[in-house]
Automatic annotation (TrEMBL):
GO terms for cellular component: ribosome. It holds the Pfam family P5CR_dimer. Belongs to the pyrroline-5-carboxylate reductase family. The keyword Oxidoreductase applies. This is Pyrroline-5-carboxylate reductase dimerisation domain-containing protein. It comes from Skeletonema marinoi. One of its GO terms (molecular function) is pyrroline-5-carboxylate reductase activity. Signal peptide: none annotated.
Length: 145
């Protein structure tokens, strides 16, 4: 199950980064500048979330002024079903991992260890994940008809 979020998660984040960088270039930034802006935005946001321990909704609301530019952007994301698309992608990954017999959670020649992405000893490394068992989902898995 963790593969659906942490194993494949970097690909989701990289896709978000691509979209943000491409939007920046379309707005007139050089690709290099847009990339630096996106890197620092994601790094700073993640660091802030980890340091505060606040729920992401609290953090999002704290940086969103009513009627402001961020509120307009959030409206577009919500109107475009951003959350639903992300959740559906994670469930698709989970279903595929079940079809594959859970094999995609293993590190292999064509896979990247989360240790190399996050560093051994980080909350995402394999040496700490093993101490935090994941409970299986309860109830029926939601599928698209």
């Amino acid at each position: 199950m963790s593969t659906s979020i942490s194993g494949s998660g970097p690909a989701y984040i990289f896709l978000l980064m691509e979209a943000m960088i491409d939007a920046g270039v379309h707005m007139g930034f050089s690709r290099e500048t847009a990339t630096v802006l996106v890197h620092h935005t994601l790094l700073g946001s993640t660091k802030f979330a980890m340091e505060t321990g606040e729920h992401p909704a609290v953090l999002r609301n704290s940086v969103t002024s009513p009627g402001g530019t961020t509120a307009s952007a959030i409206y577009e994301l919500e109107n475009g079903k951003f959350r639903t698309v992300i959740k559906d992608a994670i469930w698709a990954c989970y279903r595929r991992s079940l079809e594959m017999g859970g094999k995609c959670s293993q590190v292999g020649p064509n896979r990247v260890s989360t240790d190399s992405l996050f560093g051994v000893g980080s909350p995402m490394s394999s040496d700490t994940r093993s101490h935090h068992p994941v409970e299986p989902p309860t109830g029926e898995m939601k599928t698209k008809s």
